[in-house]
Amino acid sequence: AILAVVACLSSSITASAQAVPTAAQTLHVSAFGGLTGTYTGIAGGRNLGITAGVDLGIRPVFAFYPSLELRGTYPIATGSIDSQRNILGGINLARSYGRLHPYGDLLFGRGQINYGAGRVTPDRTAYYIQSFSNVLSPGLGLDLDLSDHLAVKFDAQLQRYSSPVTTSGHLYAKPLTLGVTYRFGFNHRPRRDR
User: Fold this and answer.
1) CA–CA gap between residue 64 and residue 47 (Å, rounded)
2) 3-state secondary structure string, 115-152?
């Protein structure tokens, strides 16, 4: 009798597990990387850097695709004024229109500014070679699908750093990234044709 009850329970559990659609994914993972040109916000400074990151998304909510994002930028051509590097995390919210996936994100993290040969504070009481700061970074972007797994990425951020060498105590950097996004095969974002 016990074996019969166990057999009935296991067959009902198996049947209910198979009733769940296999296409329903709870997590979506993608990675991206690209070249970033940054207007640093100090005396016309510019950098060329590499940006890489990962997004961990969940099921769509009212046709929006929310995800948690982690990214970092490292300068490879620093220019003569200053160079900036950072690591940021936050939220990303996207929509799908066929092959186009526009998104907005809000990121927060830590950054470092290297001032080249050094810069004097506005009151001329200190001389800085580098400084560290929290970074707030709202942004917009667009992924353009080339296939189910691969997309071209266009990304723009506005990053607020604290800096002791500016009169306001802050600077606003403008990084622009051109790169690629790879969506892992088991969880690509479904297309919506309009």
Assistant:
1) 33
2) EEEEEECCCCCCEEEEEEEEEEEEEEEEEEECCCCEEE
The answer to whether 175 and 141 are in contact (CB under 8 A) is: no
Residue pLDDT, tens place only, 2-40:
545 435 545 544 444 444 444 456 788 999 999 999 999
CA dihedral 73, 58, 140, 181 (to 10 degrees): 60
Separation of alpha carbons 53 and 31, rounded Å: 6
Q: What sign results for the dihedral spanned by CA atoms 157, 184, 143, 178?
A: positive
CB-based contacts of 183-188 (< 8 A; 24+ apart in sequence): 183/28, 183/29, 183/30, 183/148, 183/149, 183/150, 183/151, 184/29, 184/30, 184/31, 184/149, 185/149, 186/25, 187/25, 187/27, 187/28, 187/29, 188/28, 188/148, 188/149
Which has the closest alpha carbon to 87: 101, 116, 61, 107?
107
What mean pLDDT comes out for the span 164-174? 96
What's phi and psi for 10, nearest 5 deg?
-65, -35
What is the reported pTM? 0.81
Q: How far apart are CA 162 and CA 172, in angstroms?
A: 9
**Euclidean distance between CA atoms 167 and 46, whole angstroms:** 20
